[in-house]
Amino acid sequence: PPVAVASMAAAMLAGAPRLQTDLQAMKLALATFPIPFAFVYSPSLMSFPNLGLDVVLPLMYVVLYQWVVAVTCYGYYMRDLANWERWIFSGICFAGFMQITSPQTRDWDIVFGVSFAIMTLWLFLTRNRPSLAFAAKPAE
């Protein structure tokens, strides 16, 4: 909606394909999607310059959630991700959104944090290995 007109103008000026430009604009906008929800469900974020524990924790969750959304959209985190890894990150995105919209319960905090930590460890251990989805086929 607000991105569409700017995306169309950018595609026209650059001579780029409009649909590809729109897709990239939507990927960028998707990462900012949870910010209004975070303000509604954690009103303490409105006092941002005053950094207390009630502001820092929701802020960290929102930033981490935006990072996970970007990883999911672009398919890169320490290396190119395989399709199954991107699907896992999309599940982590769901857990992160549930955490942002239900800050009173800590169940989603655990699911979001532990699953992100496990995937980060997995990608750290396999960072020097190309993903299976993008690996070149051996010459016959």
Describe the structure.
The chain has 140 residues and is an all-alpha fold. Helix content is 66%, strand content 0%. The chain is built from 6 helices and no strands. The protein has helices at 2-14, 18-30, 35-41, 53-74, 83-101, 107-125. α5 (83-101) runs antiparallel to α6 (107-125). The longest helix is centred in the middle third of the chain and has 22 residues, at 53-74. The protein is flat and about 50 Å long. It starts with a helix and ends in a 15-residue tail after the last helix. The mean pLDDT is 84.
Q: What do the pLDDT scores average to? A: 84
Beta-strand percentage range: under 5%
Structural class of the helices, strands and pairings? mainly alpha
Helix segment tally = 6
Distance from N terminus to C terminus (CA atoms, Å) equals 50 Å
Helices, strands, pairings?
Layout: H1 2-14, H2 18-30, H3 35-41, H4 53-74, H5 83-101, H6 107-125
Quick description:
The chain is an all-alpha fold.
Key descriptive features of the protein:
mainly alpha; 6 helices; single chain; 140 residues
